[in-house]
């Protein structure tokens, strides 16, 4: 009996040391600043609300170490690998803050609209809205549309690939000026920063930048993705695939390449999408992501012919129900409401959010 007692004491001590050794504080960070800037993406700004009380933060038991890569469980989430705090970075004159859901009520009528849209996307192979939802904690796709394997125009959502290729090429180390451009590109969707960084990836040559970005996406296993802006030779860029986009979110989440955490954390300060994916997500939930908006002609990824699109994309990550999720919505619907309904419905149906 005494031996059993000693063993139990040793187990409790070991467990305590292991938890302390994680170096994590499970308090929810305070964030009272507001986001007020609009981006070049022409989407509305995100919403910041008073610090939520999140019951998920009270019981981290059973999570893998990577699951602490979110603002709920990691009190140091706002710190970048070089020690710089996100709150010390300004974009368009405003300090960066963590984004949360807009908190609009998801009514019974909206739930019905969600179910109708979800059913349509899962039965019509040519539907203009395609999406994939992944549980990043387990790396399992838990729901998706019928044609989530097909390419659609990425618009500004492709900017995460430019940022990822840059940090990968430089082994996770970027200059202060590059970090500023990265923030401009991901937070307010600056197109000037986008093309500037793409050129820098190529050593001042945009075409070589496109080549590196393409090689990066192929090496990472995103075989259909064209994450660069413009044409690389005769190959049209800026084409994304929902299934591959959530794999990208997974790789950013698990810090699968040098500097991935920089992109992952900056995505959590994005100011666009409050009338899109953020719209019906509760204000207690932190959301990272990147929108994409474009109206006009582009190349049809299936036929190569020119056609007109009305893109309203939203790539998103959020932590709910003690799980980390990634959601890729590529929409040619011309309406923010498609992404809003899908995000609001899917987070309730699969993540248990009320």
UniProtKB/TrEMBL annotation:
GO terms for biological process: beta-lactam antibiotic catabolic process. Residues 161-297 form the Beta-lactamase class A catalytic domain. Keywords: Signal. It comes from the Bacteria. Pfam families: Beta-lactamase2. Residues 37-51 have a biased composition (Low complexity). InterPro entries: Beta-lactam/transpept-like, Beta-lactam_cat. PROSITE patterns: PROKAR_LIPOPROTEIN. Residues 35-62 are annotated as: Disordered. GO terms for molecular function: beta-lactamase activity. Residues 1-21 form the signal peptide. This is Beta-lactamase class A catalytic domain-containing protein. It comes from Bdellovibrio bacteriovorus. The lineage of its organism: Bacteria, Pseudomonadati, Bdellovibrionota, Bdellovibrionia, Bdellovibrionales.
